[in-house]
Write a structure and sequence with these properties.
It is a single chain. This protein is mainly beta. It has one domain. The protein has 2 helices and 13 strands, in the order αβββββββββββββα. Strands 1, 2, 3, 4, 5, 6, 7, 8, 9, 10, 11, 12 and 13 form a 13-stranded parallel beta sheet that branches. The longest helix is centred in the first third of the chain and has 8 residues. The radius of gyration is 13 Å and the shape is globular.
Amino acid sequence: MSKVNRQIEDNIVNSIIGAGSEFKGEFKINGLLRIDGKFTGTIETQGKVLIGQTGEVITDIEARVVVVGGTVRGNIFAHERVILLTTGNVNGNIITPSIVMEDGVNFEGKCTINKTIAIKESA
């Protein structure tokens, strides 16, 4: 997929769990998943997962890109990048080839920067 197509895809919300909503289960999708409510279970996508400021998740996430502005209790495995926004709160382990952490993030866990993840994806 070209870089332009991927950027367009990253901005189109495929699925959303809105504020005030609760969802439990296994989420396997293509594209962007935005969570502003509560989610418990597992998430798997080749796209992007965005946890908004009001989002609370108890989950393991496997995705290309993960952006955390809310609360995550669980592990994050990102093939490309993890972005922890200043309002983010993560209690779990992170494995990714690239991470960005803004000032003010609460992170408790182990972070492994693994560049071979990106190499496997592009091969």
